[in-house]
Specification:
The chain is α/β, with parallel strands linked by helices. It is 41% helix and 15% strand. The longest helix has 17 residues. The N and C termini lie far apart (43 Å).
């Protein structure tokens, strides 16, 4: 179950499906559209059909409803940075390490005026990225600049475009952008180019996730890539262990992301 098929988790489904097939399993995909009610109905349907296990990217950090519904009925593995309590199974990308990689890359290239672009969704992962950014800027005695969007996750390209236009209209001084996801980074790049700002000659841009669109020749976005196959393999293996032995202690796996340097960044 994923909260939005247009996100990185929609792309990750292919990796999950490939790994599941190798283990003789079939995956059923539910898109909950960021709706807790739909999420609840999907969970109940999987319980009723006696699914072997559930992989879920939860709509909210509050997973009490899911836990009550699935307790003693079906094993669950949470995927992504939204949930990280010690007493549940989860697999996620280490967003602290990923953010450090992105910012170190920009700082090492001589950038000091770095703006952070955030979406509207708050999560543990989101908070960690902001904390690393704030610490990085404080350590260098630089002013923080964090912009938040109120646009729904399905429209993140539009959100990034709007934030990019806002920066230009306000006359904000910056030499680099770091976006918490690739899609708003791509949208912001469109707004900057529309305003005649050259990337990366005048402004460098780094995204986060490593979605397929970040590789397009018109984008060539430097990004912190989540390692989909590594995460998928661990999700399926953990789910199988808990399906085979209900008393297995909760398992946690933090994948180390990788910085993919492309043509959207350059030295000052």
């Amino acid at each position: 179950m994923i909260r939005d098929s247009s996100s990185i988790y929609g792309e990750m489904f292919k990796a999950l499906s490939d790994v599941a097939r190798r283990h003789g399993l079939n995956l059923i995909l539910y898109d909950t559209n960021n709706d807790p009610g739909i999420e609840k109905r999907c969970i109940q349907n999987l319980i009723d059909t006696m699914a072997m296990g559930i992989i879920v990217v939860p709509v909210s950090e509050n997973i009490n409803v899911i836990r009550r519904m699935t307790k003693n009925t079906v094993p669950v593995v949470y995927l992504g940075g939204n949930v990280r309590p010690d007493d549940v199974n989860y697999v996620c990308c280490d967003s602290t390490v990923g953010t450090e990689l992105a910012l170190k890359h920009l700082v090492d290239q001589g950038h000091r005026k770095i703006v952070m672009l955030c979406d509207s969704k708050t999560s543990n992962s989101h908070s960690r990225k902001i904390a690393v950014y704030q610490q990085t800027m404080r350590e260098r005695g630089k002013k923080e600049s964090i912009l938040h969007s109120e646009v729904r996750e399905q429209d993140l390209a539009k959100a990034g475009y709007a934030l990019g236009r806002y920066l230009v209209a306000e006359g904000t001084e910056f030499t680099a952008l770091f976006a918490v996801k690739d899609t708003p980074a791509i949208g912001a790049m469109g707004a900057l180019r529309e305003a005649g700002i050259k990337i990366p000659e005048q402004v460098s841009v780094v995204g986060y996730d490593g979605i397929d669109a970040s590789e397009l020749s018109l984008v060539e976005l430097t990004t912190v890539a989540q390692l989909r196959m590594e995460m998928a393999e661990n999700v399926i293996v953990i789910l199988l262990r808990h399906a085979q032995k209900a008393s297995t202690p909760p398992e946690h796996y933090l994948a180390k992301p990788k910085l993919k340097i492309r043509h959207s960044t350059s030295a000052r």
